[in-house]
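Input record, target 12 of the design panel.
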């Protein structure tokens, strides 16, 4: 199961320990994501569809995959598998968290990562980012090694 991010921390409610650091998949309430136009549009569309104002990070994670596929189809000018794969291997686009690309060597998604401390609140949103740091995505990705077995 998921053991990081806002979903399990939300489940802890008032039992959330102080000073927990965790990944923030879609920290839409803090800069630089707060002013990101793609993020603002996704938030508005989510609110219009659900009537809720405070989505969790899984909304972004699902939308990112769909956006990558749609951007690849648009770039390939085709929905056929081979042209879409070729387009995706050279893909770069603006996501709700900032610039995002696919690394051709291993198909890794590369974008900014955010980590932060969360705190519980008694009113909505009941889970809030207190502090956040940005980590360049390439700084935490392993060096690609195509054709070699992955060993942890």
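The sequence produced for target 12 reads:
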């Amino acid at each position: 199961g998921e053991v990081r991010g806002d979903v399990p921390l939300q489940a802890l409610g008032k039992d959330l320990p102080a000073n927990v650091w965790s990944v923030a998949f879609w920290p839409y309430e803090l800069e630089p994501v707060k002013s990101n136009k793609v993020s603002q549009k996704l938030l508005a569309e989510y609110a219009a569809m659900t009537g809720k104002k405070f989505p969790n990070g899984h909304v972004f994670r699902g939308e990112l995959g769909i956006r990558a596929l749609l951007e690849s189809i648009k770039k390939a000018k085709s929905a056929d598998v081979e042209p879409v794969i070729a387009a995706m291997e050279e893909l770069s686009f603006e996501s709700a968290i900032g610039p995002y690309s696919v690394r051709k060597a291993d198909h890794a998604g590369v974008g900014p990562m955010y980590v932060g401390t969360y705190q519980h609140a008694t009113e909505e949103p009941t889970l809030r980012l207190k502090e956040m740091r940005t980590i360049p995505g390439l700084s935490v990705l392993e060096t690609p090694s195509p054709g070699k077995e992955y060993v942890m």
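The chain is about 30% helix and 20% strand.
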